[in-house]
């Protein structure tokens, strides 16, 4: 049986916090279950007391106190009565939404003062503010109109501001899209003024450097909700300067939003080449411990896409939910939740193993180890290190100071005959302008020079964008493979790899010397 609070308890708690700076009664109120039929009587002055308390704590930048106030007010809001009338309706008439605009602007000052860093307390405070805003929005039609008119432009400004943390932008976008989803038809006129058209154009530009796939999706969703499909045909060319990008955006249908949006964003991010901040790779299979995670059941979804987000420092993807209609379930792996990770080639596949700090629940399964399998030809090491950091990269087990991890390495030769050792996963069929080593039955080596590949920079960019979506063709040159300790672990500049390269070079020279001696012996 829920506890019934005193009819005047909420206002008394606000009084204690305002006059005595005592927040304990307000925090205690958060622990009380409030039934829908409970009426909490407040005076006509309650609205002004609430505003005074919120403004004071915002000026003090006491984030925890502000969150406590907003959560308490949000939980009790529907139960409040003022002079026998519905409290929220009365306060909306008193100017509650305008006061919340002021609260938002003060909160934005705090956000910008913290920089782009991820501050959980600030993120929680913004979530609490927008949870409260949704309560006001859902109160009545006047609440909807005022909230949409006052907050949609401000949320757009927040989203296009690169100084704001991505997590905050994602949260505010979710709330805005929820508002737009319920927007009355007669309220759409607020989206057609010149200010909103300029903001929509800036939102389109923000997609390019957002640095997070989910944020990009949220922006695309907002643009689609703010316009009809017919309006998009005209506005897309204003938002995106390249025709093929504008046409891809025009192709997004409301009924196929998820898959059409994926096609559009893969095209946008791929077009950016090395300047992109979202790298997308097709995954062969994914596991949480021993449980396989399933791709969303959508016939239009071509691949099991994994997004590497440089801006938010997260890895994210979508799986099929366990519910009956198999709704898409988002999975996000932030850098601060990762304990250690490794990348290795196993059974001709590249395996990214992520060990999490704590057990997580994904699609009703619990686990701590995430395993993602990719085609061995895909280069995921650099972008993974940019997201999770090189310090969390799993070191191979060492014995007497030498790595015992083994990987297949291709020995290729350049025009001067110098040996170059390249891990199998690093070789590219496009950029191999090398001389291959062919083995003949008599063990003599023959050098064959393939035709020169002249690389155009524009073609290179185009190929880079396509490389993530297609399996590279088989190599057209013969190669000699051998096992070298630790070759996949280090970059070309690594001293250990240079040592390994030198050791292999000595071994090759020694083998050649023995073969020459044997040949001379036979000749004699």
Summed up, the domain count is 3
Strand order of the largest sheet: 6-5-12-11-10
Broad CATH class of the largest domain: Mainly Alpha
Number of strands: 19
Task: Please report the distance between the alpha carbons of the first and last residues.
Answer: 105 Å
**Which consecutive residue ranges, at least 5 long each, have pLDDT under 50?**
1-5, 396-510
Structural class: alpha+beta
Share of residues in strands: 15-25%
Radius of gyration: 30 Å
CATH topology of the largest domain: Leucine-rich Repeat Variant
Q: Largest sheet, if any?
A: 5 strands, antiparallel
Query: Helix count, per DSSP?
Result: 17
Q: Helix content range of the residues, please?
A: 40-55%
Could you tell me the mean pLDDT? 78
What CATH architecture of the largest domain do you see?
Answer: Alpha Horseshoe
Question: What is the global morphology?
Answer: globular
How would you describe this protein?
The chain is an alpha+beta fold and 524 residues long. The chain folds into 3 domains: 9-206, Leucine-rich Repeat Variant (Alpha Horseshoe), CATH 1.25.10; 281-392, PH-domain like, CATH 2.30.29; 401-523, no CATH class. The chain has helices at 9-20, 24-29, 46-59, 63-76, 87-94, 96-113, 120-137, 141-160, 166-181, 194-209, 213-226, 229-239, 243-250, 257-271, 381-388, 457-467, 495-523, and strands spanning 40-42, 80-82, 85-86, 278-283, 285-288, 291-293, 304-309, 314-320, 328-334, 338-346, 349-362, 365-375, 398-399, 402-403, 406-413, 419-423, 436-439, 445-448, 480-485. The strands form 6 sheets. It has a 5-stranded antiparallel beta sheet, with no helix packed on it. It has a 4-stranded antiparallel beta sheet with strand order 4-7-8-9. A 3-stranded mixed beta sheet has the order 1-2-3. Helix 4 runs parallel beside helix 7. The termini are far apart. Residues 1-5 and 396-510 have low confidence and may be disordered.
